[in-house]
Amino acid sequence: MEIVILVSLLSLYCDFTDAECLVVSPARLVVKHGDPASSNCSSDTPVEMGWEATQGGAGLTDNKVKILNWKVDSLTDWNSKPTCFTEGGQCQKQLNITVYKLPDRVSISYRKYPDPMVEGHQYLLQCLVQNIAPIGRLRVTFYKVSATGEQTELDTQQKSKDNIKTPENGTYTLDFTPGRDDDGAQLLCSAMLDLGPEGPQPPPVMDSNRLNTNVHYKPQITSPGCFSMSITEGDTLSLNCSANGNPAPSYDWLLPHADPNTMEERSVVTITNMAKSHSGNYTCFARNPLGNSTCTVNVEVTVDYLPIIAGLAAAVVVILLVVSCFTYSSYYKHRRMGHYQLKDMLPRRHKNKHVVQHNGTDQSFM
């Protein structure tokens, strides 16, 4: 009776402390399915010990030993639980072992294929991870890659299935609502098997195929913008209407001097030699099957008075010059006619004047 009580107390003691019982090292193994595995069982004092396992098991040693190795060349048992024990099962220690397998394939698809996507509508994405173990350590992340290559994380999911050791297929879903900026982007999912510090580092990751997105959205006018402007009479007006839209939008212009029921079916409107009658609102319409967008430019035609003023000033200067020249000419003639007599202009006759020619020279004597 006393011996039974002593054995029971010893077994209970060994269950709660490893100091005087068995030690398994390493205590935890992460092994890829089909790879070799090994661990040591040791004791502070020599004892008869053995390994109980579906693979690599060993009975009690004939002699007392301090250490006993467990080893398999190819671990294929998903639920392997190697346990080291001593004679009579007084002490025992189980090796914590995880057998893993990377997925055969990771794929992403739409639950119902959209043809095409429409801005603001919701679509269900589905990521399928095939034949992976243990599925409880799997983390699936959905990503969006923009047309410029920028990658954005959409969501990360992990299922609580720690009790499942054998390979499983995992299906993960995400509701995706695209916007116009998502046109031309790509969608994918990534499967990461996170097995902790004892597992492979960094954790193995497998990406899915990529889904190209074609998002349809109504137009949004980007140019010329809605504003007011003024233009000088006689100049040329040119307005170019452009918009972002998928499918590509068509354009119409409603002009202020045209019939309200008539539109110009073009993206650019050009008017030469602008007149006051061309003042008013110029409205662009951009349309596609999903909707339309409008933008109005208010145009005011102004008259440039500077050339007129300059012309009038030049005319006044010319008139003043003509008047000045006429006035000066009249005044000058009047002054000259008032100081000179016709008789003053004729030669005078001299009395007692004799002209003698001497030696060919005329000489006059008074």
TrEMBL record:
Chain positions covered by the region annotation Disordered: 153-177
All copies of domain Ig-like, residue ranges: 219-302
Signal peptide limits: 1-19
Composition skew (Basic and acidic residues), residue ranges: 156-165
Domain of life: Eukaryota
Xref: SUPFAM superfamilies: Immunoglobulin
InterPro entries per UniProt: ICAM_VCAM (IPR047012), Ig-like_dom (IPR007110), Ig-like_dom_sf (IPR036179), Ig-like_fold (IPR013783), Ig_sub (IPR003599), Ig_sub2 (IPR003598)
Short name of one Pfam family: Ig_3
Name this polypeptide is given: Ig-like domain-containing protein
Source organism of this protein record: Oncorhynchus kisutch (Coho salmon)
